[in-house]
Amino acid sequence: MFNTKKLKSAKEYFLSEEQFADTVNAGLSLKKKSLPSWLLFDKVGSEIFKKITELPGYLPAASEFEIIRSHKNDIAKLITGNSFNLIELGSGDGCKTQILIKHLLNEGLDFHYFPIDISSGAVTNLVRSLEDNYYNTSLKVTGLIGDYFDGLDTVKNNGKNLVLFLGVSLNNMDLGMAKVFLERLSQTIGPEGYLLIGFDLMKDPKLLYSAYNDPLFEKFNLHLLDRINQELDGGFKKEYFLQQGQFNPITGAVESYLYSMHDQTIHVKKLNKKFNFNAWETIQTEKSFKYTLEEIENLAVESGFEIVEHLFDSRKYFVDSIWKVKH
Ligand SMILES: C[S@@+](CC[C@H](N)C(=O)[O-])C[C@H]1O[C@@H](n2cnc3c(N)ncnc32)[C@H](O)[C@@H]1O
User: Fold this and answer.
1) Which ligand 1 atom minimizes the distance to the CA of 164?
2) pLDDT in tens, 10-57
3) Is the pTM of this model over 0.85?
4) Is the CB of 122 inside a 6 Å radius of any atom of ligand 1?
5) Ligand 1 centroid, distance to 172 Cα (angstroms)
6) Which CATH number fits domain 1-232+289-327: 3.40.50.300, 1.10.268.10, 3.40.50.150, 3.90.380.10?
7) HEC secondary structure over the chain
């Protein structure tokens, strides 16, 4: 059984042109210019990001692939009885999860996979690819197009849940946002449920530097200027900006910036506004917080969970941590 459901209309989810314009206007009007990283994820931005995750130097993806491959048995142990739901928040192309699904089917386990993603293209493609690969197996798939919590509300009471939150999605939230998100999750996944959640770990800042300064990262960040030009009739010239990311030990995050290479004034016609840049002035575009194990353990407890097990890659660059709701 393979199907897809849309939880709300696209209009209710996606940014209107006005919201995009307001966010860009607010960010570029700050004394220290800053634009949120989710503005990067339109269709083209998501395609560039997928290529980034395939770079051997982009350690989070390579490390998490290794974890899923080498610990698939530890994850399979969590699946007991029938009517088990494997729920994935922000599944994207589900590449890593497909390794797990293949293993669970080989083990003869009975489960229903619910990929949840706000991107309709991502869910549709993933369900189609699973249907092609597993049409003659016991696999049941319901793709849910919508927000994490709308998706969870649709599924949560139908049995025991293993919720996957893979990749660096939590790393991109600041600590306050992460706590609010996890507290809500602890109240949603059910007393019998498990959460398998990815954290990129603090490591040698030189490795972080090289991971976040690949030319593809620059292309990804500069894409934001293209998007502003296209959607708001902006006058950015990408060749007059460059990107650099670096770890900031005060905030505990890799921070990416676009640097203006000259004094310049950019007219954004649909905002009816001009933005001045001094040479080497920055726009902050991304923050990826890096965690120590102690910080992860505190976060779990403070948000209503207890830790069952940490699954590491061989270099301990990343952890997929298994949590249970604390009773
Ligand atoms: C960086 S990608 C990670 C994809 C995949 N989990 C991985 O590890 O490669 C984040 C995904 O989360 C989705 N997403 C972001 N915010 C969301 C939300 N509020 N509800 C559902 N999906 C969301 C995006 O569309 C994107 O596919």
Assistant:
1) 6
2) 555 555 677 889 999 999 999 999 998 888 877 788 889 889 988 988
3) yes
4) yes
5) 11
6) 3.40.50.150
7) CEEEEECCCHHHHCCCHHHHHHHHHHHHHCCCCECCHHHHCCHHHHHHHHHHHCCCCCHHHHHHHHHHHHCHHHHHCCCCCCCEEEEEECCCCCHHHHHHHHHHHHCCCCEEEEEEECCHHHHHHHHHHHHHHHCCCCCEEEEEECCHHHHHHHHCCCCEEEEEECCCCCCCCCHHHHHHHHHHHHCCCCCCCEEEEEEEECCCHHHHHHHCCCHHHHHHHHHHHHHHHHHHCECCCHHHEEEEEEEECCCCEEEEEEEECCCEEEEEHHHCEEEEECCCCEEEEEEEECECHHHHHHHHHHCCEEEEEEEECCCCCEEEEEEEECC
